[in-house]
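Troubleshooting: if your tokenizer reports a length mismatch, compare against these two reference records.
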Amino acid sequence: MHVAEMDYEVAAPIREKLLEMVAASDIGYLGALPELGPAFEGFSLERWGWQIDPNQIKMATDVGVAATEILRSVTRPGDKVLINTPVYSSFFGWIKEVECEVADAPLSLEGDRWQLDLAAIEDQFRDGVKVYMLCSPQNPVGTVHTAKELAEVARLAKEYGVLVISDEIHAPLSWVPFTPYLMVSDDAVQTGVTITSSSKAWNTAGLKAGFAITQSEAVRIRLKNLPDAMQWRSSILGAFSMVAAYSQGQDWLDQTVATLQENLSHLHQEVATQLPKARLFEMEATYLAWVDLNGYRVANPQQVILDEGRVGVVPGQDHGGEQYQGYIRFNFATSKPRITEAVRRIASVLEG
């Protein structure tokens, strides 16, 4: 229940495209990809009402490469990059790779929902943050940030001259309305760049392709130092799998999101029955549950669960340090019997 990929078959349109390309020996370097802009344009317009500029898409090997290349092009060593813990663990590595410093405005917990702390974000902007790495939807808590919150982020970013990199790779896996950062306001258009891929939602991460997209000339100029080679460093198979996903993969996606919602309900039932001291939170997207095990007062619960229960989960501290040591991230994009068995094994360890 560890790595962020799904136990489901890849969508038929993607499989068919890959087989077609391999059969034609069309597996060389990636060239220009005029098909991607219209495919993502149609998908984003239908799904979210977002009219993109298809001419402002820039390919990358994956969202991690897109993030690091953007950071490298707009920061200098020692600059502050803001995140909101708990957050995707790779954000820390990307910031370290470009020799910047991590600044944190932790999410606040309101009831059972984790959300952005706008006052803390402004404090960090005021303190000299250069770039804000926004995780939208938020991995690992499954929050879909509201349009109102994002509009305020954009207003603050414009006021303090902060570039917002919005990682929206989990966006298609939302079951409440999702708002892309670049469509909330003109301030967002003037301050933001989105990085994304079909790889997470359609389960094709190993094919290695993603992209960055801007919506304004101001941000495009700010990113003028991005290397041209980003295009050629992407996989031709990954690139065309994205086109297939966005243009033909909606039915598969809808079925998968429905399955994830059913699995989440099943996980809630199993946890309530077998792990009564554990706590789950309100989720609106993704297949990665954030589980609070502090009630069991076990140091390093992830390691104990692995050693004694033989269940692999991600330790909470990977997502933001020791303050999250009592949490785990649990992948439920699998079968209900496997979820049941994983919870049973965890309970056998923690409940004794």
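Reference record two:
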Amino acid sequence: MLGKSFNQIEISRSALRHNYKLLKQLARTKTRLLAMVKADAYGHGMLESSLAFSEAGCHDFGVAEIAEAVELRKSGIEGNIFVFLGFAAADVSLFFSYDLIPIIYDIESARILSSEAVTQNVEITVHVKVDCGMTRLGIMPDEFEEFVAVLQTLPGIKYGGLASHFPRADEPESSQTREQFLRFECLGVSESKVPELVAHTANSGGILYFPDSSCSMVRAGISLYGYYPDGETGVERATGEKLQPAMRFKTKVLQVKTVTKGTGVSYGHTYITDKETTIAVLPVGYEDGLSRSLSNKGEVLIHGKRASVIGRICMNLCMIDVSDIDSVQAGDEVVLLGRQQSDEITGDAIANLMGSISYEILCLFGNNNQRTYVE
């Protein structure tokens, strides 16, 4: 893209490294920590984030689709790269060309991989996904023994790992996660029984709130980027060293104008000024990830103070009320996410206004704006 956008996402590499190291400390000593970098690293940039995690000691990375894995490998990322959403038969050779690890959940995929392995006269390691309670991808527990028995008859296939996923690990008080982990353990994945098998089911919530579920590997997602899976409750619950949000979203004031009482603002005039009002116009809208649902209720920081979004958020513009903030002018920095002076707007706070979660906010902002990286 030519030129620099008014809207800039700043990603802190040091925060990414801090979060990885902190989570590694929370996991068991010999437990591997896989960094989930799917969805362009939750809006933080897949390659740059992977490099930061590598610098912190990461050797295992997870993506959703094979194209992401190929991009990582082509960019020089070393270590293990796991592909979690399966693959199209036409793409099977990419696993071998780029040394990738497939997570499989059906026997047909295993047969396709086996055929390609035989053709290339090599062996490929696969991990099996089991649905122990997420009700998403994965074979059912009662199908597991038969599935593995068939898998182990296929030439060129090495059964190297078993995976599942927790749906409620962000609820520390829930008994469901412990019950689900027992179902996972009953599949015979304990290190004493199969020491070479890589077992992984704990996500961010598992690492933070259910450390006994660590197994031989854990998978960190949202926590790597500085957010707790249970939102503001997690921040309040955390003791000692805390996760550090890595993303900051800033823009600039385009224009400042003063209007009289009774003036309608933006499409539909859903906001009518109740007094003489000073309005700052910002070059950010729903195309840039600032959800239209934040109209008349979102907030930003300018001169270290909070200003309210007024009127409907447009595709590329929105308006804020700066009547109580002195000397606002075109070119002033405005922060939509992150810290400015002594105040901070978090992804959790924005998510609460939208009835959503921090994951969505980070993806919306990070994947729709220019990113720069700072220490």
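Descriptive notes for reference record two:
- The first strand starts at residue 8 and ends at 12.
- Residues 12-236 form a domain with the TIM Barrel fold (CATH 3.20.20.10).
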